[in-house]
Amino acid sequence: MSKRRYLALVSDAVQTCGVEEFARQTASRLGIRGRTHLLDGKIRTLVSALDDADAAILNFPVVAWKRKLAEPVSVALTTRLRRKDLVVVLHEWDALDWKRRLVLVPVVLLATHILFSAPEVADEFSISPLSALATRKRDVVPIPPNLALPFSLRSGSVAQALKEQRKAGRLILGQFGSIYPRKQSTAVLEVAAHLLAHGHDVGVVFVGSFIRGLDNVERDFYALADRLGIADRVTVTGYVADTEDIYGILNHVDVFCYLFSEGLTARRASVLAASFAGKPIVVNAPRQRNALAHHSLFRKLIERGAVRLVATDAGVGTMAEAVSKAPRGGVAPLDATAEIGALWESVIDALDAHAAAH
């Protein structure tokens, strides 16, 4: 077994994004072979940390790095000057703003190994001009859920409110994860309004917070809820730190609903995290036939009825019909801990495969 040591670069963010969680958990899953290092602009401490590592790992895009995009470049350069390997994990590519991709050019060119979060991201990168200049040592890795499963549930005020709504006969739709335009979270509002118009008593809970950028995500979200006449049926929790609280809330969701602009892809770790609440998830199917071929957990969730696929280009009516039927079907249990462990073994194998290729 390889004894290769890794240094994962992380931020000091308290409210972490999924990519940040992946970076931190990678170091944790590596055990004594993995350490984290704070991206704080201090090259001297970085050099010291690199002395005890064989490779550095940089993940993109980390939300907390938006204001310090020059630092990953200096980290990449320092890593290579110290004759250490540089593993770059690209969770997105075409979805990134072109200015962010431009800043990442030197980082990618310095990489000795590139990992992608999904075949779609690998394909996007392969047709970019940068691909011809970058390393050919590339792999697609399965992204595990971005949450660790809790040992117990905590029933806070939001969970109690949802419990009371369900007692009164209300169907609770849910989504876990950050709220932003590309995720099309507002489609769930439209699904809820459609169901309400057809005689269903529904409520919606979003367990997550808005990603604030140049657009008015939060303002537009609530404006749509008002126009649809469901504002009093919508709950947005904001960032929830503890998994006991998160799953305490998710436990009171009847059906999870996602309608992604590109269809389901393997990098949607928030869908995996939601699946462990044991409730059905209705989501539009991947565009590519091989999109989930490398991801054993997604395949099993579909096989066992936990993830219910509708057409990739499904409209609100189709989604609403699938949501209304979803609670009637059972969800076959699986050993979540074992499945998550298997995914992390695949990630670590991909990291170590590069060492074996030296």
Name the descriptors.
single chain; 358 residues; alpha/beta; UDP-N-acetylmuramoyl-L-alanine:D-glutamate ligase; Rossmann fold; six-stranded parallel sheet; 13 helices; 40% helix; elongated
Overview of this protein structure:
The chain is α/β, with parallel strands linked by helices. It has 2 domains: 6-140, UDP-N-acetylmuramoyl-L-alanine:D-glutamate ligase; 157-335, 3-Layer(aba) Sandwich (Rossmann fold). It is 40% helix and 16% strand. It has helices at residues 18-29, 43-50, 70-81, 98-110, 119-126, 157-167, 186-197, 217-228, 243-250, 269-275, 296-303, 316-325, 336-356; strands spanning 6-10, 34-38, 55-60, 85-90, 113-116, 138-140, 171-176, 202-207, 234-236, 255-258, 281-284, 307-310. Strands 2-1-3-4-5-6 form a 6-stranded parallel beta sheet, sandwiched between helices. Helix 2 crosses helix 3 (70-81) and helix 3 (70-81) runs parallel beside helix 4 (98-110). It is elongated, with a radius of gyration of 21 Å.
Provide a concise account of the structure shown.
This protein is α/β, with parallel strands linked by helices and 358 residues long. It contains 13 helices and twelve strands.
Mean residue pLDDT: 91
N-to-C series of helices and strands = EHEHEHEHEHEHEHEHEHEHEHEHH
- The 3D shape can be described as elongated
Total separate domains: 2
CATH architecture tag of the largest domain? 3-Layer(aba) Sandwich
| Share of helical residues | 25-40%
Reported for the largest beta sheet, the result is: 6 strands, parallel
| Biggest sheet: strand arrangement | 2-1-3-4-5-6
CATH topology of the largest domain: Rossmann fold
Report the C-alpha radius of gyration, rounded: 21 Å
Sequence stretches where pLDDT stays below 50 over 5 or more residues? none
* Global structural class: alpha/beta
Q: Cα distance, first to last residue?
A: 15 Å
Work out the number of β strands: 12
CATH homologous superfamily (4th level) name of the largest domain: Glycogen Phosphorylase B
Percent of residues in beta strands: 15-25%
